[in-house]
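Here is an idea for our session: we take a single protein and study its fold together. Start from the sequence, derive the backbone structure tokens from it, and show both lines together. Once you have written the record down, we can walk along the chain together:
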Amino acid sequence: MKNKYLSYLLLVFIAGLWSCSEDNDVFEQTADQRINETVATYQQELVAAQYGWKAIIYPAGGGVYSFYFKFNDQNRVVMYSDFASESAVTSKESSYRLKAMQTPSLIFDTYSYLHVLADPDGSVNGGSNGDGLRSDYEFSFNNDSLNTENITLTGTKNQSKLILIKATQEEAAAYGNGGLAKSLLFSNISKYLTYFKRVTIGGVVYEIAVNQSARTVTLNWLVGTTVNSFTTDYYYSSTGVSFITPFVNGSQTITGFTDLTWDESRLSLGMTAAGNKVTVVEAAKPLKVDIAAARRWWTFAAEKGSYWVSLTGFTSEGKEDFFGVTSIPNFYYLLFFPAIASSSGTTYDAFAAYDGNDLMGPAVVPSFKTDGRVTFSVLGQYGTNELMNTKVQAQVEEVNGYYLIQTSEITYDMVSAKDGRTWITWLYPWE
């Protein structure tokens, strides 16, 4: 027992010597000293990038946006942003600081282009009131983020992702010379008067659809009689449109679009893709009609005893809400309510505006065609709203009918089969 006690004391003594030895001290600095040293390393890295940083941010609210940052050692940063045409050509200087919080953090502490995405006023950025696009302007450095080219950060409030990539001399010059604004010419694709648009790249015809709010590009193409589809997020760079995920089709790889041109008089967008100079052209119908889509759309809501809604009505001739339905007093939305009621043995649907109390618009009966179109005949009217019972009704019963394009599990676009120049987006908001 005595020997065991002496052995225990010897171990304690050795451990004490170990802990007091400067040569064997595991941490020669305090935790605060270590994190401050890391912060200083990040500061040096940000400033040392001679040509600044390209930046890609993924707000928690969706979408992808690009920036250019040039940091200096006086805690000032100059930036450009692809959010709008003005921010693409006009540099903005603001302050930043690095701070040792729970983790090393980068804080943009005066209002800047970065704050526009996070602004809680939805009218500023198109997001929801109270949240904006759920982006951030305070970020923590990821533990493994520092390397020779990239720095990865995470927003402290909304966990949006920010990636900094060292810019080249050519890229920095392009940002300063308005290259980002030239890339924004791609947004003019929304000015085409037809819903359907096509582009031929390397001999392959692609149907191209762009969601500028979500910042996504979709390419559809035929392999035999089968429609293949590819969708990727995109952002604007100093040289064009960059795909987050490159598109590969056989030997063809498309990483984005460059050399963008726009002819306003012809409403014609030109660009280069995979080394091919191409032009986006209009189309009156889908590359291949989904012949089951119209009935699938109708059945989806009918089986639930519910309805589809549209917040903006018909888009036509390039103008959203072409008929002005949102000007109806106390307008909530347009709705399409399948199988809402029956009369004299005929089941009919409501294609009507709703003001919180009443329906206004035509009662219709659908006819599903074997080629995938749906047409509507008018059985009667709800209410006495002149706009809904004249102009909108005339559009609804257009003799050529409509194609239904499913864009997600709960959204469809209903496109005029006459010429593809009029359409309405239906959302099922009850899921």
